[in-house]
Amino acid sequence: MEENINSSNKEKMHKSKTKPAIGWFLLGTAILFIGVALLVHIFSPKIDSLITADGMLSYVISCISSAATVGLAYVAYRQTERANSMAEMMTEQSNLIARQANELTEKSDKTAQKANELSQQANALSERVTLLEESRYKMEVRPFVLVTNWEVKTGRPDGDNIISYQMADCDANDTVSIVLELTNTTQCFEIVQYKEAETASENDKTPTKWGRSVVNRNSVSIGIPSGESRKVCFYANKKFFAKTEGHDIDIQFILINRFGDRFNESMKLCVMRLNWERGDCMIFPQNYKVQEYAKDHKTLLE
């Protein structure tokens, strides 16, 4: 805006300087033409000359033509000067617009950079929200139990906080038990039910399948409140568990959350040592996996 004002001021100053000079030039030319005609008229009687009235008329016409030519030249000069001035003004305006466009481009680049930074922050925040939502889902919706303790006993233990599953036929004098303590690590009440298990053997091509039978109990499952533990007992005769020591037990449980949704939890129990007489055992639970209880068995946690 300031540059446009300066250019218009320069043009006005230039016009104010050229107008008086051109006026004096035109005035001097007219005086010259008139002065020559008067001199010729005054001195012509005293000097022999071939100048006649027709010649003087031709001289006057030539002066008029010259004046017209000078006027046209002046008009052309003024038009050229105006065109040049307008061209300079347009050039200055174009340069100004170009500079403003460059400034806008720089501002837009900065704005785009800030937008990218905000987008990255939004993505990071979204990832954190997703992690929090996954954590909330794990703690509130998806059930999970952790094997926190284990023991072996002769006979079959009983009580309110324990559920016993019979793996094979046995009598009272030949009954041994493997007891697992399951802890609910989520924030919701859940129901745990034994599904199936098998003992992998290196010599046998087929693993030993564990049965599932509940005696003297109306339910085949046990409820575990949040943060609490319950025991699950697996009992059979000693011969059934003879191949368990030194092998892995692949075991699965059905978990039901507070909404009635069913999940399948599987794990591997590495049995390093079993001694029924001393009540000594060493078991390493590992490879926990929770899946939706459906045909596709979508994995939720490994």
Give a brief outline of the structure.
Helix content is 43%, strand content 29%.
Known CATH architecture of the largest domain: Sandwich
The CATH top-level class label of the largest domain: Mainly Beta
> What structural class do the secondary elements suggest?
alpha+beta
Quickly count the helices: 2
Number of domains: 2
Beta-strand portion reads: 25-35%
Write down how many β-strands occur, each being a DSSP E stretch of 2 or more residues.
11
Give the proportion of residues in helices. Answer: 40-55%
User: Termini distance?
Assistant: 69 Å
Element order, helices and strands?
HHEEEEEEEEEEE
Morphology call: rod-shaped
Task: State Rg.
Answer: 55 Å
Mean pLDDT: 80
Query: Main β-sheet, in a few words?
Result: 7 strands, antiparallel
Q: How would you name the oligomeric state of the polypeptide chains in this document?
A: single chain
- For this structure, the CATH topology of the largest domain is Immunoglobulin-like
Low-confidence stretches: none
What does this structure look like?
The chain is of the alpha+beta class. The protein folds into 2 domains: 2-139, no CATH class; 145-301, Sandwich (Immunoglobulin-like), CATH 2.60.40. The chain is 43% helix and 29% strand. It has 2 helices and 11 strands; from the N terminus they run ααβββββββββββ. The strands form 2 sheets. Strands 4, 5, 6, 8, 9, 10 and 11 form a 7-stranded antiparallel beta sheet that branches. Strand 8 (248-256) and strand 9 (262-275) form a beta hairpin. Helix 1 packs antiparallel against helix 2. The two termini are 69 Å apart.
